[in-house]
Design goal:
6-stranded mixed sheet; Rossmann fold; binds adenosine-5'-triphosphate; ATP hydrolysis activity; 237 residues; alpha/beta; 2 domains; 40% helix; 4-stranded antiparallel sheet
Length: 237
């Protein structure tokens, strides 16, 4: 399988604080990769660095093209969509209006309508609530809306920051099942940053472990799940 994204020697800092110390990783085309690590390890910073939301050093190659000097807007146009932690939906707009805004990069009415219907195929709960204000949705529904909105960009790669954040276990499980459907049916590659290692390793093909800004382990998700030290530190059994 070829790689949709290749990252080499990625460094990032906030002022004097070095957060990423030259990390390397790949995301296979059509695959799900997860980046695991404790609080503050640098997971969110990695996602921000890929889409140019912070200054970074190193090489980032998307579909064979260097993107490490590009603006966030241009990176998004190439097909890289972020689903930020905390969701970032427009709370005073309806579900449907949020989805329409998600397609801002190609303002063509007909295809937008078709894509909204496609999103509702993955998220029937949102279809029932299409006229409801986003701010009045439950936490799980807001997470669904954030993912659905990212899909409106017709992304090739989705970067998801803690999709389980603040959600009850049952809702989290449903969201991961939908992500598995999106991977299978829409063929979207994904990088999932998660603290819930068990869930993330269940959906991922490949996993990387980050500790204080360095990759300390990588391998097939199955092998990582069986590793003794990962079990003790991240899986709790
Ligand atoms: P979490 O799971 O808690 O979100 P994380 O692995 O995503 O953790 P990051 O958010 O990447 O971690 O943060 C890495 C380090 O960078 C932390 O020490 C954090 O305090 C620091 N940091 C993050 N954002 C900023 C910022 N805007 N300014 C200064 N320091 C920051």
């Amino acid at each position: 399988m070829s790689n949709i994204l290749e990252v080499r020697g990625l460094e990032a800092s906030y002022g004097d604080l070095t957060v990423l110390r030259g990390i390397d990783f790949d995301i296979a085309d059509g695959g799900v990769t997860t980046l695991l690590g404790a609080n503050g390890a640098g997971k969110t910073t990695t996602l921000r660095a890929i889409c140019g939301m912070i200054r970074r050093k190193g090489e980032i190659t998307f579909e064979g093209k260097r993107i490490d000097r590009m603006s966030t807007e241009n990176i998004v146009r190439l097909g890289v969509a972020q689903v930020p932690e905390g969701r970032g939906t427009f709370t005073t707009l309806t579900v449907e209006e949020n989805l329409q805004l998600g397609a801002m990069t190609r303002p063509n009415d007909k295809s937008i309508h078709e894509d909204i219907e496609k999103s509702f195929h993955f998220f029937p709960r949102l279809k029932e609530r299409r006229t409801q204000q986003a701010g009045t949705l439950s936490g799980g529904e807001q997470q669904m809306l954030a993912i659905a909105r990212a899909l409106m960009l017709r992304p090739k790669l989705m970067l998801l920051d803690e999709p389980s954040f603040g959600l009850a276990p049952l809702i989290t499980k449903q969201i991961f099942e939908i992500l598995a459907d999106v991977k299978r049916e829409a063929g979207v590659s994904m990088l999932i940053v998660e603290q819930n290692a068990s869930l993330a390793l269940g959906i991922a093909d490949h996993a990387y472990l980050i500790e204080t800004g360095s990759i300390v382990m990588s391998g097939e998700a199955k092998a990582i799940r069986e590793d003794e030290s990962v079990r003790a530190s991240y899986l709790g059994y």
